Amino acid sequence: MQLTPFCLMLTCLQVNPDRSQFFRYDNISLSCGEQLNNTGWKVKRKTLAGGTRPCSSGWGYASSGSTCIIGQTYPPDSGVYWCESVSGEQSNVVNITITDQPLILESPALPVSEGATVTLHCTPETKSFNQFFDFYKDGHCIKRNSTGEITIKRVSKSDEGLYKCSISGGEESLGSWLAVDASSQEFPSSTSAAEPAAPCSFSVLRLVFHLLVGTPYLVSTVLLGLIYRDRRRGKVNPASV
Q1: Exposed/middle/buried for 186, CB within 10 Å: 0-12, 13-18, 19+?
Q2: Rounded distance, CA 34 to CA 65, Å?
Q3: Which Pfam families does UniProt cross-reference here (predicted)?
Q4: pLDDT confidence of 116, banded at 50, 70, 90?
Q5: Is the predicted pLDDT of residue 162 greater than 50, yes or no?
Q6: Fewer CB within 10 Å: N-end or C-end of the chain?
Q7: How many CB atoms sit inside 10 A of residue 153's CB?
């Protein structure tokens, strides 16, 4: 796993895959990082159901070194996770959420360096065709597309906030906090450069798509109605003569 500048400078809990939201039954690897050069560190967590416990004490199992594996996640595994030494030193804290919802937002679990490029993914548990995704920051819709991802180039402190996504007119993910570490810039950065935003409204292309799909059905319905009307008139007229 590649270490971020944030982890190179600090005692750091790393999450693999690098995100804070997971579906039920996902696998998670939690590691205290090779940069510590210390075998006395353990992964701990605090949850609503289980309180504060180290790895292998009723949850997860210890792998090589200071790595802890959760083979199958469940909603009760949601909580805060960190690394702790035998002397009581603690690393950064990572919030991890396990959800039964059919949609998650994949965003970095750790703070990202100012100036880096960040991609957020809106991931449905079951994918289907012709889906449109809406992305929100602090409650405001910032982009709609069919790819299910949004890229922020040269990320800055102004990009920090609570992000979530939804399938247009359907399911919505939980929120994930995107943290930006201004102390370790990867590239000189003044302002962020997000992808050109598409308005979060009914797009022209989508309107054309619905018209192309719906028009034949509308026309056929009208024609059937006219035929049915003419047939009824044909039956009524001879009887009235």
Answers
A1: middle
A2: 9
A3: Ig_3 (PF13927)
A4: very high
A5: yes
A6: C
A7: 15
CA distance 15 to 68: 10
Phi, psi of 49 (to 5 degrees): -85, -40
- The closest of 58, 79, 67, 62 to 14, measured between CA atoms, is 67
The string of DSSP letters for 81-136 reads EEEE-TT--B---EEEEEE-SSEEEE--SSPEETT--EEEEEEESS--SS--EEEE
Whether residues 28 and 136 share a domain: the answer is no
- 162 within 8 A of 175, measured Cβ to Cβ: yes
| 69 pLDDT above the threshold of 90 | yes
- Cα–Cα–Cα angle for 181, 182, 187, rounded to 5 degrees: 105
17 upstream amide cis, omega within 30 of 0: yes
Element (H, E) at 7: helix 5-9
Name the range with the highest mean pLDDT among 25-34, 60-69, 90-99, 127-136. 90-99
Per the CB < 8 A criterion, the answer to whether 98 and 79 are in contact is no
Length of the chain, please? 241
First to last CA, the chain: 90
**More confident of the two residues 26 and 50:** 26
The rounded distance, in Å, linking the Cα atoms of 105 and 150 is: 11
The answer to whether residue 232 sits within a structural domain is no
Residue 235 in domain: no
* Residue 61 structural domain: 1-100
pLDDT at 39: 64
Residue 199 C-alpha from the chain's centroid: 20
- Both tokens assigned to 155: 């990320």
- Give this prediction's pTM: 0.74
